[in-house]
Specification:
In chain A, about 75% of the residues lie in helices and about 0% in strands. Chain A is built from eleven helices and two strands; from the N terminus they run H-H-H-H-H-H-H-E-H-H-H-E-H. Chain A is globular. Classes of the chains: A mainly alpha (about 280), B alpha+beta (about 110).
Chain lengths: ~280, ~110
């Protein structure tokens, strides 16, 4: 299992466990006297969480029939290359094509009993060479901006939805989100996630902790600001200000249309940025 | 040795186009053929070149079943690839004549 696959599986297990434990907590303690989670719901949520982990394993982690043909050094090299390609901004079609090509190369070389080092050399450099044959890494990194917009839209709508679910009697369009949370979402969408994606391609598992580390840092930073700088107007607005990010149905429609629109724009921009002609 | 490497790198693309001119070839076979004629290359060198040539429209791909693994890509020249090969042949002839003159060749 590659580093990325381990991180994906572990994350899905943690997420499922967090979901189940949270619901179990609500079942045991009730929720303001009006429990919305009972034993049957907990069982259902546990089942769905377990199925989600299994789905993640089969869809993202389990090796294909061809990958299972690789062994030892060949498998290690392949996983490094696959991780680098998976973390890139190439289209899913290009990524699958490259994975297939590399599998064909490695299976053929393994069949001829060549040492893996002789075939691939440094797997990270090989992967960078593959990505560079499409376009420069800087051009591809520009596409992260589009991902950032999509992530931010999801975060803002998601936060609004969660706050509304806590008290469904209020209007969805009256929900106000903390300004500090909006700033947090923006930094995560445009900086933390692209940086994590770039650094985790280097096979260092510690880099997967960057989002968590940033979250902890942000909370500590906010607390320090509140304790020592609350008298500063900008800080007060940042910590206590709120924003109505979805003030009306038209704005919600814009958010919802923006997501597929941005993804379509990303596909078109990717085509323009690629050197030569590629069928996407 | 370093000079050899730089020279070979410069002509590798043209040689790959020439090899593929008469026979559709898959990546591993292209590497083996290049090694047989004396190039010191491996898959890590050749595969990005094949991708670049494909992305640049010089090669077209035909996917066929493979006896060992997933569907295999066989590369063939496009018209653009043929024009690039002709250009490479002219350039190579010119360089070869110049170098032969300098070296006092026939």
């Amino acid at each position: 299992m590659s580093t990325r696959e381990k991180a994906v599986l572990m994350t899905s297990v943690l997420l499922a466990a967090t979901c189940v434990i949270s619901c179990a907590f609500f079942v045991m303690t009730g929720s303001n006297g009006a429990p919305c989670v009972n034993g049957a719901s907990l069982l259902f949520i546990t089942l769905i969480s377990a199925i989600s982990v299994v789905a993640v394993y089969f869809l993202r982690v389990r090796k294909s029939q061809w990958e299972r043909l690789l062994n030892g050094d060949y498998l290690l090299k392949y996983e490094v290359i696959k991780d680098a390609v998976a973390n890139s901004q190439l289209s899913n079609r290009n990524k699958r094509e490259i994975e297939n090509d590399i599998l064909d190369l490695l299976i053929s070389a393994q069949g001829d009993e060549k040492p893996a080092d002789e075939v691939v050399g440094n797997a990270e450099i090989f992967a960078q060479g593959i990505l560079a044959s499409f376009t420069s890494p800087i051009r591809l990194a520009v596409l992260s901006m589009y991902d950032g917009v999509v992530f931010l839209a999801f975060f803002l709508i998601g936060a609004n939805m969660l706050q509304w679910l806590e008290n469904a009697s209020q209007s969805f369009f009256d929900i106000r989100t903390d300004l500090s949370l909006v700033v947090f979402f923006a930094i995560v969408a445009f900086a933390v996630l692209p940086l994590t994606r770039h650094l985790t391609a280097r096979q260092n598992p510690w880099f997967f902790g960057i989002p968590l580390a940033f979250g902890v840092f942000f909370v500590v930073f906010a607390q320090v600001l509140r304790k020592h700088f609350l008298n500063v107007e900008v800080v007060k607005v940042f910590l206590d200000g709120t924003l109505n990010v979805v003030p009306n149905p038209a704005t919600l429609i814009v958010y919802l249309l923006a997501i597929p629109g941005i993804l379509l724009a990303k596909t078109q921009v990717r085509r323009l940025l690629m050197r030569g002609w590629i069928r996407d | 040795m370093n000079n050899d490497t730089q020279i070979f790198k410069g002509i590798l693309e043209g040689c790959i186009l020439k090899m593929i001119e008469h026979e559709a070839m898959y990546g591993y076979r292209a590497v083996e053929k290049l090694k047989n004629v004396g190039f010191e290359v491996n898959e890590a060198t050749v595969y990005p070149i094949l991708l670049r040539l494909q992305n640049g429209g010089h090669l077209v791909v035909d996917k066929r079943p493979s006896p060992l693994g997933p569907t295999r890509k066989y590369y063939s020249l496009t018209q653009k690839g043929e024009r690039a090969l002709r250009q490479f042949e002219r350039t190579w002839d010119r360089i070869k004549n110049v170098v032969d003159n300098v070296m006092g060749g026939d």
